[in-house]
Amino acid sequence: MKPTLMASALALTLSLAAVSAQARDIIMGLVPAENNEEMIAKFEPMRAHLEKKLGQKVKVFTATDYSGVIEAMKKKRVDIAWFGPLSYYLAEQEAGAEAFAVGIGSSGKPTYWSYLLVPANSPAKSVSDLRGKAAAFVDPASGSGGLGPSYMVKKGSGMMPEQFFGKFIWAGTHDASIMAVKNGTVDVAAAADATYERMLKAGLISADTLRILSRLELPGPPLTYRKDLPADLKKNIQDAIVNAHNEGVKVSGFGTVSRYDAITPADYQPVRDMVKELGLKKEQMLK
Fold first, then answer.
1. What are the strands of the beta sheet with 188-192, ordered from one edge?
2. What is the per-residue pLDDT for 3?
3. In which element (H, E) is residue 210 found?
């Protein structure tokens, strides 16, 4: 075969491969911050909107823990994923995730809060008063349920949670963590502000029985895509997400979201700095 024909054949093969890659279903992964069924229902308007704008089927993938979604993206079984800020940091390292949008809530800011919650009648006035007590955090890869509360404990006591508390458990979801302190299983629990507010509104907890002992502001949970997706597909995904609120879509996400704004990986440098300051290793965050 002549060189020009060989080059043309190679170009055609690569072109067909790219078309094939884009023609298959797009898979969106959701980390288990809340009940899986609730998460899927909450993201349905955005899934349907994205499917319409891309002209491709968009399906949802959920896992039992944060590392499951990271692993799925690493194995290219997930194309788009919603992560918390810490699980995004891990997915960036492990799976080539690239942050492209963040939900904007009632505060009008691309941030959210990590809470440490105690019973309303708890004598604790600061984190240091909880030494030796029982605690429930969410997941080692959770920003507001793992990194944020660990940072607050370290700043308030000079110790990491595993050494500071007498009993320390990972509850798995924000809901389960909050219920653990509500039911008296633990003395303090970590959770995201959105889950706390949702459970208050639903009457599952009460401000008369739980109070916020400490809180830390974090970069908001980002929507990400695999860095190795075709550039035009990434642009189309980002455009569809950040313009959804202008097209009559019921914008949804983690917590109350009015729109999505474009972001870049650089917006998550504070998370990288906290991981470094706490000296966290990959194996500690992907248990």
1. 167-170, 134-137, 188-192, 111-119, 210-219
2. 44
3. strand 210-219
